[in-house]
Design brief:
With 327 residues, this protein is of the alpha+beta class. It is built from 13 helices and 14 strands. It is 41% helix and 19% strand. The chain is globular, with a radius of gyration of 22 Å.
Length: 327
Amino acid sequence: MTIQEVVKCRSCTELFPQDRQKSEELYRELMKKFHPDVCGDSLSSQAAAVINSLYGRVKYPPKQHDMRIADGPLVRCFKEYDRCDGQMYFSHSVVTFVLDSGLDEALDGKLVKRYNGWEISLGCETPESVRAEAKKFLPDISEVMGIPGGRTVLKVKCSGDELPLCEALDFFKGCAGREVSKHFAWIISRLLGMCCYAAAGGFVLNCLAEENLLIDPVEHTVRLAGGWWFSAAEGGRIFGACQRVYDAMPSSSKSDGIARGIIDLECVKAICRRIFPDDCPAAIREFSRSVCADDPFEELENWEKVINKAFGGKFFTPMKLCINDIF
């Protein structure tokens, strides 16, 4: 690795393996090569600072903290998030939601108790093969409990590699270039896939916003964590929505409170406008500002054409990001 490549690194995964012993050995090698005392390059001081900073994330990984939910259980987490519908606590293996009172109606019928846990039911009557594929982006509920004040605690399992999408986007904020745009392109592809699944099942997700989604940089997956309790049958009544979803809604749904499939597509277009850098390919900017197609399957086809036009095809671009970079 050249000194120019070192100073461009932002994630500890770009320089160091997760194994702390191997990272320590590599750290020593890098400092012997790039420390200002031994390297005469004008970038040596900057390179040493980058190496020290990124190695620190591996040597001193983020710690989780115990937090007591008011009149509720103790949770261990990296960070607490305030939400329009309550609070969210993110940890290494579970995301805990504490939902405000009054959301019983929104949850009604969407949680089914099974012998081995809980299952999300959004009214989808699609084939088993489609439902199996959908498990990649639907939340995996491990626990549901009521606490004083009419509030509900929901615990969603997450893998050790999954991160809140909002945090991943903050990490890349201000970054430019085709590589960043490629990262965000597969996120849009996954979201449009969710829209197709919802349309096939006759319901509207009504929750596609950064604060409700988890991203796995390793597996290139995007998954719902929260907000799904606001989903509704196509043509049914909307119970509520987070602010970003409401802002993206067509005026007709804001006026009559009816769930329409275009809500999900407008949410994806809004996310597209928010996350791509200013220097993203022109085809992506045009797509983000275009009128939504009549159905998500057509929109997904349009997006595939945009990717081909913007990047010359579909390519797997590793996203260098891990939990040590975030918390």
